[in-house]
């Protein structure tokens, strides 16, 4: 079973497990750097939980996910026309004020992550901000449900970010909001286009 197959076949279960998660800390971490209005891309929107939150704040939200079945549920939940697309299809140029990729890029193979980061940078306005949440660690694995996960250290991710014209503006580490028994720590990164200055 592939990662997309898992989400298609378990869409209702995943939706119900994640749609009511308390993400306030992550929202606040991101929104402190956002303008009060503008366009937000929710890249890998899952249940649509975060898209709906941003929509209710008045943002113009574009929601994208790779799972056709999750897109259907997210569309119904948010009232948005959620697009089913692979992350590699991202092609906008300087279009979004904010890009939110919460726990979605963990499914991108490490060898392909830099290319996706370049596409994300290109889609971001020059004064925009990006939120990316990744599982920290090394290597990759297929979990017992068939989902692929890639892990990066903070230092590895800093190198990738630097190579694609971005810098880390802010960083925090947190435990899983969904699975309280998970031992892995999540890295929460705020990125912006590179200007004068260095990574933190």
List key phrases describing it.
single chain, 200 residues, alpha/beta, Rossmann fold, two-stranded antiparallel ribbon, 7 helices, 9 strands, 28% strand, globular
Structural summary, described in words:
This protein is α/β, with parallel strands linked by helices and 200 residues long. It has one domain: Rossmann fold. The chain is built from 7 helices and 9 strands; from the N terminus they run αααβαβαββαβββαββ. The protein has a 7-stranded mixed sheet with strand order 3-2-1-4-5-9-8, sandwiched between helices. The chain has a two-stranded antiparallel sheet with strand order 6-7. Helix 6 links the parallel strand 4 and strand 5. The longest helix is centred in the middle third of the chain and has 14 residues. The protein is globular and about 45 Å long. The protein starts with a helix and ends in a 7-residue tail after the last strand.
The portion of residues assigned to helices is 25-40%
Characterize the main sheet. Answer: 7 strands, mixed
Low-confidence stretches: none
> How many discrete domains?
1
- The CATH class turns out to be Alpha Beta
Identify the CATH architecture.
Answer: 3-Layer(aba) Sandwich
Instruction: State the distance separating the first and last CA atoms.
Output: 39 Å
Total strand segments: 9
- Please identify the structural class as seen in this structure: alpha/beta
Could you say which overall geometry the principal axes of the C-alpha atoms support? globular
Q: Estimate the mean pLDDT confidence.
A: 94
Radius of gyration: 16 Å
CATH topology: Rossmann fold
Number of helices: 7
Order of strands across the main sheet? 3-2-1-4-5-9-8
The H/E string reads HHHEHEHEEHEEEHEE
CATH superfamily: Vaccinia Virus protein VP39
Beta-strand content bin: 25-35%
Oligomeric composition of the shown chains: single chain
């Amino acid at each position: 079973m592939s990662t997309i197959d898992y989400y298609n076949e378990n869409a209702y279960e995943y939706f119900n497990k994640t749609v009511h998660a308390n993400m306030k800390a992550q929202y606040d971490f991101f929104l402190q750097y956002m303008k009060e209005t503008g366009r937000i891309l929710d890249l890998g929107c899952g249940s649509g939980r975060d898209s709906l939150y941003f929509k209710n704040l008045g943002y113009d939200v574009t929601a994208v996910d790779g799972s056709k079945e999750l897109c259907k549920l997210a569309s119904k939940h948010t009232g948005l026309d959620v697009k089913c697309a692979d992350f590699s299809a991202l092609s906008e140029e300087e279009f979004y004020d904010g890009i939110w990729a919460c726990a979605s890029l963990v499914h991108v193979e490490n060898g392909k992550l830099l290319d996706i980061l370049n596409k994300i940078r290109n889609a971001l306005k020059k004064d925009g901000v990006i939120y990316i949440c990744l599982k920290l660690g090394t290597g990759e694995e297929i979990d017992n449900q068939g989902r692929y996960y890639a892990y990066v250290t903070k230092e590895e991710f800093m190198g990738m970010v630097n190579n694609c014209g971005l810098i880390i503006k802010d960083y925090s580490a947190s435990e899983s909001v969904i699975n309280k028994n998970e031992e892995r720590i999540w890295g929460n990164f705020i990125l912006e286009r590179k200007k004068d200055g260095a990574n933190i």
